[in-house]
Design brief:
globular; two-stranded antiparallel sheet; single chain; 4 helices
Length: about 210
């Protein structure tokens, strides 16, 4: 049975025309919306792995970040430093993730918010479940956050409308993440995280990748 367009969108991220995807690649921006299932051998449990990634040039931007199911910030598993900008910034491994993805072309924005979790019987590889939380197409923000108005980053977001002309916006719990991902698609030559936050030793213990000395 062929998957519906919205099912593919929810699982894989924004569906951009091939010409736009090619233009993004040509700029060197590498946003990775993929969410994958991984197994932690030491803890014998399944998790979801994803990467906060992307950035911008003056003309366009593409950014992918992740938050918790209540909209609060998640801690990264490890920070990724790269010589090249606009790539992977950090890795997150959790049982449940909300992906916040945005694409900008000049002053026009697309926003996709989806929830991802694992479902299945104990002892077997679980299935990845996904839910569409918000989709905004062709939103507008006149403020030039990548240039002369950069001081307003983190405090401005696009305005979206339905096909009938009514204003549309994500639920209040996603507003903070939307502001941050808007900042990400306007961050030229980005080399830092906008949504994931620093993680201390206690966080690493949770993932079974570090031990804290007494």
């Amino acid at each position: 049975m062929q998957e519906s367009r919205f099912t593919v969108l929810t699982r894989r991220g924004l569906m951009l025309p091939s010409e736009i995807r090619e233009e993004i690649r040509n700029t060197g921006i590498r946003g990775r919306p993929q969410v994958e299932i991984v197994h932690q051998d030491r803890a014998n449990q399944w998790k979801l792995r994803a990467e906060e990634s992307g950035g911008a040039v003056s003309l366009l931007g593409h950014y992918v970040g992740f938050v918790a199911a209540d909209g609060s910030a998640l801690a990264w598993l490890n920070r990724v430093h790269s010589l090249l900008p606009n790539g992977t910034h950090a890795v997150v491994v959790e049982s449940e993730l909300v992906r916040v993805e945005m694409f900008r072309y000049e002053h026009t924005y697309d926003l996709l918010i989806t929830r991802h979790w694992l479902e299945g019987r104990e002892g077997r590889r679980p299935e990845l479940r996904s839910e569409l939380l918000y989709l905004g197409r062709r939103g507008t923000l006149a403020t030039e956050l990548w240039g002369r108005d950069a001081a307003f980053r983190g405090g401005a977001q696009p305005v979206f409308f339905t096909r009938s002309g009514e204003q549309s916006s994500p639920e209040p719990r996603w507003i903070a993440a939307t502001l941050k991902v808007t900042e990400g698609v306007c961050c030229v030559a980005c080399k830092h995280c906008h949504l994931l936050e620093a993680c201390g030793a206690v966080c690493h213990l949770k993932h079974g990748v570090a031990e804290m000395e007494a």
